[in-house]
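New to this. Help decode both lines:
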Amino acid sequence: MVKRRGASSRGIESSVDSGRGEPVEREVGYEGGPRDTTLLRSYESHVAQRLWTGEDRGTLKVITHGRKLKRPEDDYIRDIIDDSGLGPLIEGTHSMVDRSLISTFTDRWHRETSSFHLLVGEMTITLDDVSTLLHLPVTGRLFSLPAFSREDAKQLLVSALQVSPADAISETEITRGAYVRLSWLRDVYKSNIESQNLNAAARAYLLHLVGCTIFADKSATAVRVTYLELFGDLRTVGKIAWGAVALAYLYEQLNDSSCHNTRQLAGYTTLLQAWILEHFPYIMYL
């Protein structure tokens, strides 16, 4: 039996048919990768498969907004943030992350197992890690949010943030969808503070906070308006399992960024870097 690499980098096994005595070839997996393809079914598009064939996508662009976060000065809003369970995100978010370190681990993530495949075996980020490293609540209410149209977004922005319909329409036209810019939210927050619309200011602050952290997306500038629904009743925000939400969203982003044609990683990258340094403390000295 002879094994070689096929045109698609799949391993080719050559053998002789015992009945007819003729050579037979069949694909048996990937060179340098899994021989059994029944588990890692998306390996064909994985970055590791392309690295084996000499295609290096380079270091990922890693989304982080740590420098944009400041604790509110108003006592009323500070109390709302503390009661929400999201307070640790303000001081705990890294202002900078190590792109090479995060890229290295992302290259080893596999969506089918939701884990990093390392030389020491498989490892993954758990809810216990989230609770220990971030101090976010990992028990509580979960949620599923609907897709929003621009009209839906406009109505919610007007009612929740006390902006004018014209301002809401203008912003969704700029973002070309049911999104708002993080910079726009900062302006809305300041405006509501000045006019003493403190509940609206708190909602703007919270949407900006999650848009900079656990719901950071690849745009690096905007956040979905649909998340604003979570802050409609400010008294119930603290009942959400924010730690579980942050972990689930990061898993989705890692799934996407482990594909060879993706060049960015979004989600709460502070969680990923903190986990790496917690479990591999000597890596910073390499």
Observations:
- DSSP finds eleven helices and ten strands in the chain.
